[in-house]
Design a protein that fits this description.
CATH architecture of the largest domain: 3-Layer(bba) Sandwich
Number of helices: 11
CATH superfamily of the largest domain: FAD/NAD(P)-binding domain
Organism: Azospirillum rugosum
Distance between the termini: 51 Å
Low-confidence stretches: 308-313
CATH class of the largest domain: Alpha Beta
Keywords: FAD, Flavoprotein, Oxidoreductase
Domain Glucose-methanol-choline oxidoreductase C-terminal: 328-452
Number of domains: 2
Shape: globular
Structural class: alpha+beta
Largest sheet: 5 strands, antiparallel
CATH topology of the largest domain: FAD/NAD(P)-binding domain
Order of helices and strands: EHHEHHEEEEHEEEHEHHHEEEHEEEH
Radius of gyration: 23 Å
Strand content: 15-25%
Number of strands: 16
Cofactor: FAD
Pfam family, one: GMC_oxred_C
């Protein structure tokens, strides 16, 4: 399945991509930080314990009611029981869902700050380094109107996302022809995404109220519509080691419950067409919505047929939703082409490549999860929707999570930034965001990005004090 143009997943305005963020929050698992011998290139230069206090601070910044993500805690607040999973094989967890728009939530704090100056409608177009040293001397900025200015600072931090961070480093090639931080050819490599799949079906033995914890539902004690929770099932670290698979995250959805992604897009296009016929603007991202409808075509047709025939939708059939981490792959990468944009920057050419272990992990993970559901007498699980030529379901879509490309590493030979997120080859250039992830786990990256940024802020406070 071809990847969407990367520009469809990012927005350039105050608050950045949080303006389009679905709000899913969950920390990476401890094993995500470990070096796993069956996954080349895996391993962070520090453990999950290093980020734990920063996860708590990230939860506060987002406005989450707690920094707890265990299934027992959230199930205990509701009348939704957990599946009694085998503790040697699977773990019950939870994802908190709160789409905080940072541009709105933190605007007042930024505007009233005495040491923050924010330039809107301005884009970084170059990083100038000295001819004989390893220092970024100035940052060149351009406006859409063609004006340019320069910023000089003791410390420079790039925080432009998994694609733009690499693009800026590669474009800054006046003094170093390969670009900045690219002495070992790692800038742009190891691009990772999350592919979200519905590859399995569970046919229930009978109604089972325990499954409803694993669907999205309102968070208890929180104002209606402001936050949701979704239960999840994850394999234990021991099971992943025994099976030699990647981390995988499972949730459940009753089949034919509405609305689906396709039905929502169908409604958006229907309403947009009516607005356009009345003289208004047509809805944006038409191709995105048509893609959702086409991927859900069988599903939408069955829904309409059920309604026409009056068939009950009480769901004795459930879908297994899987999100599998992508193994780091140096051949999956960002390069630049000669064509330039309006600001004179060479454009991105994305070579996204999956590995055999990615498909194997979701397939084997579903089989193992299905065995667990059958052990619990929930029903019969099958991996029946892996129908594409590439082994993936036609109902798949992407998380729009651009990870990797400036990975963190102990040695310059293995990555782009050091454990403090400083570019190995430069004294005063740091990188924030998910481009530094050496592995991505299954959790959506924003929560970990915020935690890493808070850790970097603490480090820079010490650097500037010295």
């Amino acid at each position: 399945m071809p990847y969407l143009p990367p520009s469809t997943a990012r927005l350039r305005y105050f608050g950045g991509s949080t303006n389009r963020w679905a709000g899913l929050c969950r920390p990476l698992d401890p094993i995500d930080f470990e070096r796993r011998d069956w996954i080349p290139g895996s391993g962070w230069p520090f453990s999950e314990a290093e980020l734990r206090p920063y996860y708590a601070r990230a939860a506060d910044l987002i406005g989450l009611p707690t920094d707890r993500f265990d299934g027992d805690y959230w199930s205990g607040l509701t009348d939704r029981p957990l599946l009694p999973l085998c503790p040697q094989r699977f773990i019950n967890g939870a994802t908190q869902i709160k789409p905080t728009r940072f541009g709105t939530a933190h605007r007042d704090a930024l505007s009233s700050s005495r040491n923050v100056t924010c330039f809107l409608n301005s884009s970084v177009v170059d990083l100038r380094v000295g001819d004989t040293d390893n220092v970024v001397r100035e940052v060149v900025v351009a406006t859409p109107a063609g004006r340019r200015f320069r910023v000089r600072a003791r410390v420079v931090v790039l925080a432009c996302g998994g694609l733009e961070n690499a693009r800026l480093l590669l474009n800054a090639d006046d003094v170093r022809p390969a670009g900045l931080g690219n002495g070992h050819g790692n800038v742009g490599r190891y691009f990772m995404e999350h592919r979200v799949s519905w590859p399995g079906i569970v046919r229930l033995s009978g109604p089972d109220p325990r499954l409803w914890f694993y669907t999205r539902h309102a968070a208890p004690g929180v104002a209606m519509g402001t936050m949701m929770v979704e239960g999840c099932v994850r394999p234990t670290a021991d099971l992943m080691r025994r099976e030699r698979i990647l981390n995988t995250h499972f949730a459940l959805e009753p089949f034919s419950k509405g609305p689906t992604r396709g039905s929502r897009s169908l409604g958006v296009l229907r309403d947009g067409l009516g607005q356009w016929l009345r003289g208004g603007d047509m809805v944006a991202d038409v191709d995105y919505h048509l893609g959702n409808i086409l991927r859900d075509l069988d599903w939408l047709t069955e829904n309409k047929l059920r309604k026409f025939l009056g068939i009950d939708k009480s769901s004795t059939t459930w879908l297994i939703k899987a999100e599998v981490e992508q193994a780091p792959n140096p051949a999956s990468r960002v390069t630049l082409v000669h064509d330039v944009d309006a600001l004179g920057l060479r454009r991105i050419n994305l070579h996204w490549q999956m590995s055999a272990i990615d498909e194997h992990s979701v397939r084997r993970g579903i089989e193992l999860f299905g065995e667990e559901l059958e052990r619990l007498n929930v029903g019969t699980a099958t991996v029946s929707m892996l129908t594409g030529n590439d082994g993936w379901s036609r109902f798949d879509h992407w998380g729009h999570h651009h990870c990797g490309t400036t990975r963190i590493s102990e040695r310059p030979q293995d990555g782009v930034v050091d454990p403090d997120c400083r570019v190995h080859e430069l004294d005063n250039l740091y990188i924030a965001g998910n481009s530094v992830f050496p592995t991505e786990g299954t959790a959506t990256p924003t929560f970990t990005m915020i935690a890493l940024t808070l850790r970097l802020a603490d480090h820079l406070t010490g650097v500037l004090a010295r």
